[in-house]
Amino acid sequence: MTADSLTGVxxxxxxxxxxxxxxxxxxxxxxxxxxxxxxxASLVVGSGDAGAGDVVRALLDPDLSDKGQLIVxxxxxxxxxxxxxxxAALGLAGAVMQGVARNPLADPGILGINAGASVVVxxxxxxxxxxxxxxxxxxxFLGALGAALLVYGIGSLGREGATPVKLxxxxxxxxxxxxxxxxxxxxxxxxxxxxxxxxxxxSLADRDPHVLWQALPFIGVGAVFALALGPRLNALSLxxxxxxxLGQRVGAARLASAAAVVxxxxxxxxxxxxxxxxxxxxxxxxxxxxxxxxxxILPYSLLLxxxxxxxxxxxxxxxxxxxxxxxxxxxxxxxxxxxxxxxxRRNLVEL
Length: 351
What we know:
By secondary structure, this protein is an all-alpha fold. The chain has 15 helices and no strands.
């Protein structure tokens, strides 16, 4: 990216043309349409006896005495809303992390942030006995912040500093340790043992609407922070010295980015557990369409990430019907190969 992109000139790295704003706006509308289709499919597809007609009636003229409408309102709507909120939060968090750290491997799951939020939330529920979302969601934020600081501190050791590969390795090690702690707490508490898969890999099943309402304000604030960071992330991607020369307050930008990531990751984990690879894959997919401009990468990530989460959840329901495969397992299966390809790219290793 060149400095021209910060002032709206449509040029890119090495003279590469950046998509025009009208074209990107049309693409954003098309992406919103794809998200609407995925949302509808999430409401219609499932193992229960409820079809498209039940969905329409449940939304427009609900009758909870009808079994199909009851399934839609009590099961599928909360599940779909959870996928929308968690997906949007993780997509934005991943884009912000990759921009502020200039690290194409940054992701809330890979860098251990989701695992940090998860283990502290499980501690709050299983050990401290906090069952209200308004109380334990704060522990999710604390865990996300603590894990981020721990991974960055470990990855910064050595002369090379926090390289992408070192951060990925530090995140993997941290996730493994925190995941073991989560498992240990769940296995010693019979009342929360049935939530094991949820807190281990992430799931949208049986979401409590109260959790969604409690998390919504935090995701909203985090999303506003993230979307406002587009020009600052463009500057930071040029390096700290050039960003300062362009008038950016680097410290304030990094602080705002950290606040956005903690709010988004903490709330997403409280909703759906630790879902991995969403924040890694979606910003890279957005760049294919938008180029390197974070003013467009962020809104595209906001819409594309829920599509990935909802489609993964639908796939998990279909391939194991009448049971299901948790959404975190499906996103991990989808994201494993692209992650290996990213690590193997020579220019990423040399950063």
